[in-house]
Design a protein that fits this description.
- This protein is of the alpha+beta class.
- It has a single domain, classed as Beta Barrel (Lipocalin), CATH 2.40.128.710.
- The protein has 2 helices and 8 strands; from the N terminus they run αββββββββα.
- The chain is globular, with a radius of gyration of 20 Å.
- The N and C termini lie far apart (49 Å).
């Protein structure tokens, strides 16, 4: 009787341990070449409706990166809306991070001001739309 109680206790803990090991909320999308950033999306904040996916997408660079708005960042996260029907994307906000985790810059698009961009064939944007829209 005591052995069966111990076995039952051990078996009841195993699913909890297995679930606890799956804590990484970011899923990598195979995209781009060797010099392109690693592209990942946040599985826990994703919202879907009949035609759209709203999701945080992360672009991680191996070396510090600079663009027109921000210098020395290694990651930028975009809060995007993907229009799966019309194959276009819109940006709600973005945040760029330095290698030490500090914020390098950020912006939020005012309500009603988001602009749609067509998905460019054979781009990282197309890889993102293909990966996330096919899951609907």
């Amino acid at each position: 009787m005591r052995r069966s109680m111990i076995a039952l206790l051990i078996l009841s803990v195993i699913p909890t341990v297995t679930h606890a090991q799956k804590t990484d909320r970011w899923f990598t999308i195979p995209a781009g070449g060797k010099d392109d950033p690693t592209v990942r999306y946040d599985t826990q904040s994703m919202v879907r409706d009949s035609a759209h996916v709203t999701v945080w997408v992360s672009f991680r660079y191996d070396k510090p990166h600079t663009n027109d708005s921000v210098t020395n960042f290694t990651e930028v996260r975009y809060h995007q809306v993907l229009d799966c029907t019309k194959r276009r994307t819109g940006m709600v906000s973005w945040v760029a991070y330095r290698a030490d985790g500090s914020t390098a810059g950020q912006e939020t698009v005012p309500d009603g001001m988001m602009k749609w961009l067509d998905v460019v064939p054979e781009s990282q944007g197309e890889s993102i739309v293909n990966a996330l829209c096919k899951q609907r």
